[in-house]
Design brief:
Blueprint (H helix, E strand, L loop, with lengths): L3 E7 L8 E6 L2 E7 L6 H6 L13 E3 L5 H4 L2 H6 L5 E5 H24 L12 H10 E4 L4 E5 L2 E7 L7 E8 L4 E6 L22 E5 L10 H17 L4 E4 L5 H14 L7 E5 L1 H11 L7 H8 L9 E4 L3 H7 L6 E4 L9 H8 L6 E4 L8 H6 L5 E3 L2 E3 L4 E4 L9 H8 L8 E5 L3 H15 L11 E3 L1
């Protein structure tokens, strides 16, 4: 009998850098190939040599279009990879803007670097073009053969459009083993996307744990809190800054702001989406209505009359972004979601010392990022090379997170038939993992393992 091994190459006791190497005989499949994000030390991990020979991979399977799951994939091309990159159709469309935007970010960072020899980009447009040339898009539910002993299928993860739970079947000639990679699971009733698909059987489960230690507020409480914070800030003449991820979160937030105007909480607020990447992502979203949830489809087909509708404006050019930085009394959505670059830094430099203004975080802030320092109450903070006192109000609205909370994760795991699968926790900070592990033990008798970086296990 051929042994199947799984090596954990990222997102181990940390939130980013998702990457898992599955080996069975001569078959080698990489599940995700993500960037490590956060501190300087974390970013240095992205430049380490791969712990495997990329030329020996049969395929790379990508769960969804976020950098912490896919951002190192083009680097494989420069190191000899020539296999298949398999994902969903929608993710394939989104990867084109995601990877090309990251190339521009790297180039911009190099120009702005104060170091005598700025860091070289991890990859260029050439590697992005090569990676996109190897990409295959597949629909949900279709079984795809990767090698004589390995098949995969994508199920809707409800995280962002095109996000997937990855089912993997390994045939050793005597029996078939099934592994399930949760990817990033969304929570129920999230705007636009459908709820995560329930899976009923697996031999091994690789489960995210980003919010493994807490529950989000209800949808009603979340909308109420967000509406109150925005209304109070605008009434005081301040500016609302919302650092957003270009793919997923920016579309969700625009949707929620529109809902707040429909319910009379806000009245014709001026909203600026200051992210060229988010604008292009919105265009791709509009082409894939077939995977929207029923509520979003209904609103698109029969839009209600809304005299209080937000006045939404896309700011694509650098000049329009600079002009926006001088405005007050508006809502600005800009990347990056963790404030580690992008146009949000220009707006923070303009408004962070204004006590009338506020910064609203709607996504997880990784340790070591500017966003995490703001959430933790650090003041002053360094923005664009300058120390700034934090006088603006800082709010965290976790109910808009694209990740399932503890209750959502436990409910989803409950969908597996007994005996429950061998379970490995990834994509979470150590403290949060331990809380989730205890909850899994108490509710289902699951003794979840929390692998370390580069640890290999037999599955």
């Amino acid at each position: 009998m051929t042994i199947t091994t799984l090596q954990f190459l990222g997102a181990t006791r940390s939130v980013t850098g998702s990457s898992f190497l599955l080996q069975h005989g001569s078959s080698r499949i990489l599940i995700d190939c993500g960037l490590v994000q956060g501190s300087y030390e974390a970013n240095a991990r992205n430049r380490l040599p791969f712990s495997f020979d990329p030329s020996t991979l049969d395929a790379v399977v990508l769960s969804h279009a976020h950098l912490d799951h896919t951002g190192l994939t083009p680097r494989l091309m420069a190191e000899g990879f020539h296999g298949r990159i398999v994902t969903t159709w929608i993710t394939k469309d989104l990867l084109s803007i995601l990877w090309n935007d990251y190339v521009r970010v790297q180039q911009s960072d190099a120009r702005a670097s104060r170091r005598r020899v700025p860091p070289s980009p991890l990859y260029s447009e050439r590697e992005v073009e090569a990676a996109l040339g190897h990409c295959e898009g597949h629909p949900y539910e279709k079984v795809v053969t990767l090698s004589p002993s390995c098949r995969v299928r994508f199920l809707d993860a409800g995280h962002i459009l095109g996000s997937s739970i990855v089912e993997v079947w390994i045939d050793d000639g005597k029996r078939e083993k099934k592994l399930v990679f949760s990817g990033d699971l969304g929570h129920r009733d999230k705007p636009i996307v459908r709820d995560p698909t329930v899976v009923h059987d697996a031999d091994a489960l690789i489960l995210e744990s980003t919010y493994g230690d807490r529950n989000h507020k209800s949808k009603a409480d979340t909308f109420s809190e967000l509406g109150r914070v925005i209304a109070e800030t605008l009434a005081a003449g301040g500016t609302v800054l919302m650092p957003v991820y270009a793919i997923g979160r920016s579309q969700d937030v625009l949707y929620v702001i529109n809902q707040l105007t429909l319910h009379g909480v806000l009245d014709r607020p001026r909203v600026f989406l200051d992210s060229p990447m988010a604008i292009r992502a919105a265009e791709i979203y509009s082409k894939h209505v077939e995977v929207f949830d029923e509520e979003a489809v209904g609103l698109m087909r029969n839009p209600p009359k809304n005299p209080r509708a937000p006045l939404v404006q896309f700011t694509d050019s650098p000049a329009s972004s600079r002009a926006l930085a001088r405005m007050n009394g508006v809502i600005i959505l800009a990347g990056s979601g963790m404030c580690e670059g992008g146009r949000i830094q220009d707006h923070l430099a303009r408004h962070l010392d204004d006590p009338r203004s506020c910064v609203i975080f709607t996504g997880y802030q990784v340790e070591g990022t500017l966003g995490r320092r703001l959430v933790d109450g650090t003041s002053p903070v360094r923005v664009k090379g300058k120390l700034m006192p934090v006088k603006a109000k800082i709010h965290t609205i976790n109910g808009l997170s694209a990740h399932a909370d503890q209750s959502g994760l436990l409910e989803w795991v409950g969908g597996f038939h007994d005996p429950k699968p061998q379970t490995f926790l990834v994509h979470g900070e150590w403290q949060k993992m331990t809380v989730l592990a205890a909850a899994l033990q108490e509710r289902y008798g699951i003794k979840a393992m929390m692998p370390t970086w580069q640890e290999s296990v037999i599955v």
